[in-house]
Automatic annotation (TrEMBL):
Residues 222-382 form the TrmE-type G domain. It holds the Pfam family TrmE_N. The keyword Phosphoprotein does not apply. The keyword Cytoplasm applies. Binds 1 potassium ion per subunit. The gene is mnmE. This is tRNA modification GTPase MnmE.
Amino acid sequence: MIYDTIAAISTPLGEGGIGIVRVSGNEAINIVEKIFRSQRGVKLHEVGSHTLSLGYIVNPENGEVVDEVLISVMRKPRSYTAEDVVEINCHGGIVPLRRTLELVLRSGARLAEPGEFTKRAFLNGRIDLAQAESVIDIIRAKTDAGLDLALNQLQGKLSEKITNLRSELLEILAFVEASIDFPEEEIEELSEGELVSRCKKVKEEISKLIREADKGKVYREGLSTVIIGRPNVGKSSLLNALLKEKRAIVTDIPGTTRDIIEEIINVGGIPLRIIDTAGIRETEDVVEKMGVERSREFFAKADLVLFVLDAYTGITKEDIEIANMLRDKKAIVLINKIDLDEGRIDPAELRKLVGDKPYLKISATEEIGLEELENKILEMVFEGEVQVGEKTLVTRLRHKEALQKAQAHIMDALKSIEEGMPADLYAIDLKAAWEALGEITGETVEEDILDRIFAEFCIGK
Ligand code: GDP
Ligand code: ZN
């Protein structure tokens, strides 16, 4: 399949050291040739693949020089899109970049849609869909662990597992179908016992992937976390203490608009997304703020609540009011200011207040107990006690749904086999499971799902 030639600015807009206009498609080299004047008289269609040429971008209509540039040519299939790709490295400013892009478009390229370069890589068979999706994760990674996970997926680790499961299913299916087509003949057959055990094994592998998908989601999206407590118990101090060492590498999430700033803290690789109330003045009386729609919403959506008490003042009426709102939330109770007083909150009193919610003694200012807090959070995540809410990217929900679909079909098949149903019946289920798995790698995915996935990218990627 041959697609038209597309172009876009592939680096963030604004001032930078360099900016790149990327062009991909069969006409990429010809198009850029029309507006490029090499310093040493080289012609782009004559240069080797993966070479750089220095020169100028020139408006062919009036000979005006737009920018001094370095041009890299990557010939198909050894390029990001597996098509001919030309990258024009401009000086970083927005004006030369825009003008260069304009000339490229006027010379015959079309402006790329968001994610279209990556979509091309998928359509041209260089990467599968799960790998394409990992590109989004790499761009958005907030912690090293999240990045590693995405890189793993880009290298095809998930795809490999899916492919193996699919070929196992296909093999089982071949036996089943042979027994339907040639019931009388002496063909190699799977005993019912073998059939059941092979199906069960596939089912278990899928269950494992579903669990991993959940874990991966925490690494990618982080836990939305709210620190609550009455004024002066030490919420801001706690946030600052956590931020001091743990601020995550990336804090902006493109494509989402938020009027409340989130801080992202790296806890053992998991991004803890904490709503920043530290900057707000102490009108942030929490009980009062709970009346405000927004904070109520945040609280309701929070995956995890850190409920701070003050060891020095002990439990007050206000603490009881807050504790009452916490009933159905996953929470860790933090008895803060333990450096001042150990004894004023006794365990029995605490149990009455928060039931069996876990608690830890800490000091935000003296940095006591913070490591224990992090360990507790990790423990709760990995034991599945705390889970990330479902407001997630379609891409990942997509994997989990496909896995669950496949799992359900295999369970149906197993049931039919064990009940001695005719083979046609469970052949259909096995086939459906095989197809559901194919959605992850993109073999059986529908066009509108593709569009939704690539719409999550930014332009130029
Ligand atoms: P917030 O209103 O809950 O955000 O509380 P702040 O973080 O502003 O803290 C209120 C006061 O308590 C400040 O003077 C802090 O320095 C103090 N504080 C917070 N945590 C501790 C702690 O662990 N030990 C001691 N001694 N003081 C603390
Ligand atoms: Zn505060």
